[in-house]
Amino acid sequence: MRLSKMHINTLREAPAEAEIPSHIWLLRSGMIRKLASGVYGFMPMGYRSVRKIEEIVRNEMDAKGALEIHMSAIQPAELWMESGRWYVMGPEMWRVKDRRGREFCLGPTHEEIFTDIVRNEVSSYRQLPLNLYQIQTKYRDEARPRFGLMRSREFVMKDAYSFDRDEAGLDKSYMDMFDAYTNIFKRCGLTFRPVEADSGAMGGSGSHEFTALSEVGESEIAYCECCDMAATTERAFTVDAEAGAEAELELETVYTPNVKTIEDVSAYLGLPKEKTIKALLMAVYEDDGTVREYVAAFVRGDRELNMTKLVNVLGVPEHMVDFADENEMHGKTGSVGGFTGPAGLKNCRIVVDSELPGLRNMCAGACKQDHHIINMNYGRDYKADIITDIKKVREGDACCKCGAPVKLARGIEVGQVFKLGTKYSKSMGACYKDENMQEHLLLMGSYGVGVTRTLAAVVEQHHDERGIIWPVSVAPYQVIVTIVKSDETEQRELAEKIYQSLLDKGIEALLDDRDERAGVKFMDADILGIPVRITVGKKAASGLVEYKLRRESEFTEKSGEEAVSAAAAFIESELRSLI
Ligand SMILES: [Zn+2]
């Protein structure tokens, strides 16, 4: 492609709202353009990279025998009502009505639709196993869309759904997808980790998240360097320390005027935060805003509550749980803002973190204005309705598998695989008949790759202060031939020759034949992140060019032919190294 015929429009500066490198560079390179908050369009260069990722995904899915189909993004509400999720999905689900008032959603995912297709299409064990996938646009009405393609309201996703006759079949389908995902992200040039994940609103029995490591990622993962433990922090749990041998001291109520936060209590009473109990007052809300029940969650004072774990314990959708209005709660439960403890509460569910019962002589609110209680011990002084792990894992906590200190890292969730089991086949009646004509529920798995988010993750991991540095596999073009002075015949002729032999070798090449200053051309090539640049300048007369990799700062001088062979060899070895 000749740049004189291509539309590119690089920006010297990114719009102020772009905070992270991938957002900045995708905008500055002109690969994406914003249409509305969280809604982006892809320009020619950007769309080429999207299609490259799609092709890698397609290739790996096909290799596992999955079959590509294409379903509508518009989904009738009835199917979501059948599965029950119409009522469970929060306001992120984009609900629409047609002119007759019939309800639909713009699909955030497609479990219901694929289950519906399969229950109509599949009747016998002979048609199994079946894995159907699509690469399609998804919608999620995010409360705070940000970071460009990272958290957008419209995005391209590959979603696949497997249907098996038994657990063994599901295990195999799941492992096949796990392998396919490992290959996909490797081929895209990402540094990533598959980690155990919470299955959340999807339901089901097992899940892994594929996390591209990045400081700006919104996923936090915990992993162990001594064993294979790796999980999202939503999911990760650790071993609670053994109960100390400390003797139980006498319970005492102390006057703590206006001392409300853990910091204040710790300072006022001269206690380490580890000796205090933090109260988190929550409510389960109905859709109309009324309170279904109050919940008081307690964790050690220096800890944080893990909402995902709490929501799982309560068995309600996440959007129904929120912090409670302490004043409203007071009359019913006896809680006192800033002074609530596990003793003295009524009409509310008390959930205590698994660590607390082992801890002696703790300090907590007294459920009385300006008072705390010290020397509280579980069993003697307070009880729980539920004792379970509801804390956020921290760096240095003991690994649940081997006890070594856990490490934390941040990442971008680029894919997730779920074992759904019979969750959808049961609620929607998706069955098959076995050899004896006996009917059974289908076992399902669902598997997603965020295609456009993967694009952003690649940029996040591959850029410098001058622009993107695409891995060859997803670069919009592999080589750019830059003519320093387009009006010099010798330069133009040599560049044309090089460009042509690159094309003859099947290399995706750009020829920068624009009537621009060399500086502008170099800057654009760097922003666009084309992996190889061949610069044809003053030495064209003697057949010499500059050969430079985008990721390196130095160039080497080569003949035109040598530069073409070097580019071909580089591309081949790069692509091979990603397999
Ligand atoms: Zn470990």
Counting copies of identical and different chains, the oligomeric state is single chain
Largest sheet: 9 strands, mixed
Determine the CATH superfamily of the largest domain. Answer: Bira Bifunctional Protein, Domain 2
What percentage of the residues does DSSP assign to strands (E)?
A: 25-35%
Percent of residues in helices: 25-40%
Number of domains: 3
Mean pLDDT: 94
The tally of beta strands, per DSSP, is: 31
**CATH third-level topology of the largest domain:** BirA Bifunctional Protein, domain 2
Structural class: alpha+beta
Bound small-molecule species: zinc ion
Rg over CA atoms: 29 Å
Could you characterize what this model shows?
With 579 residues, the chain is an alpha+beta fold. The chain folds into three domains: 21-217 and 409-460, Bira Bifunctional Protein, Domain 2 (BirA Bifunctional Protein, domain 2, 2-Layer Sandwich), CATH 3.30.930; 252-388, YbaK/aminoacyl-tRNA synthetase-associated domain (YbaK protein, Alpha-Beta Complex), CATH 3.90.960.10; 477-577, Rossmann fold (3-Layer(aba) Sandwich). Helices cover 27% and strands 29% of the residues. The chain has 14 helices and 31 strands. The strands form eight sheets. Strands 3, 7, 8, 9, 10, 11, 12, 21 and 24 form a nine-stranded mixed sheet that branches. Strands 16-14-15-17-20 form a five-stranded mixed sheet, sandwiched between helices. Strands 28-27-29-30-31 form a five-stranded mixed sheet, with helices on both faces. A hairpin with a 5-residue loop joins strand 5 (94-97) and strand 6 (103-106). Helix 1 (21-28) packs across helix 11 (451-461), helix 2 (44-63) runs antiparallel to helix 6 (167-187) and helix 2 (44-63) crosses helix 11 (451-461). The chain is globular, with a radius of gyration of 29 Å. The structure holds zinc ion.
